[in-house]
Amino acid sequence: MSKGIFLSFEGIDGSGKSSQAKILARSLRDHGHTVVLTREPGGSPGAEEIRKLLVEGEPGRWSPETEILLFYAARRDHIERTIIPALERGEIVITDRFADSTRVYQGAVRSDLRETVDDIHARMIGFEPDRTFIIDMDPDAALARGLARNSGEDRFEEFGLEFQHRLREGFKELAQTEAHRCALIDGNREIDEIAREILRLALELLV
Ligand code: ADP
Ligand code: TYD
Q: pTM of the prediction?
């Protein structure tokens, strides 16, 4: 489809994805690349509006089925307006979360709807990241980091610690079944050490 390179970060809430996505974007720019750093849900004006519906309010506000449709409405807008145009310009796109979040949060942990997610993905998106960094870490420590931010976007954190443990297992399983594109990264380390490993893996794709 494109000349660019598409990278995603995944993992439980507070695992350090946003921090690592930012550091990687900076490092790749230092290497002379043009990088678009984006996120989900969001990443385009319309998708950012949908984001507010998803990350704010009561945990029971939406059923898993409704969530899947809202995340995919946002994702479709995100690829149309932000991701595909940048890849067609030959740029590197780094997204903080993408479809693997829906596969694990809605498809495996909130409900057993993985097939539905994969069907919608095939029809509405039709491509995967070139490389996905799944940051794995202890949910107790990650949840403490996440809630400490107090951003008002804590709807998913409020599902609780047991939910985060199940997410961690879901992401680990995905890293195995999608091993050709997913790298499982140990997030229980110093930020800089994690960043060095991720940069090394990203640069491998660029040679
Ligand atoms: P996520 O995007 O996965 O929710 P963030 O990157 O926002 O995670 O990190 C959550 C919090 O943890 C932030 O306050 C961040 O500064 C801190 N943090 C991120 N990575 C690490 C790390 N390796 N060690 C300690 N703290 C970290
Ligand atoms: P995000 O802002 O990345 O949260 P955090 O920085 O805490 O990791 O994402 C918002 C929440 O939306 C997060 O709890 C995960 C959830 N989410 C899904 O449940 N499904 C999805 O498809 C996506 C993209 C996110």
A: 0.96
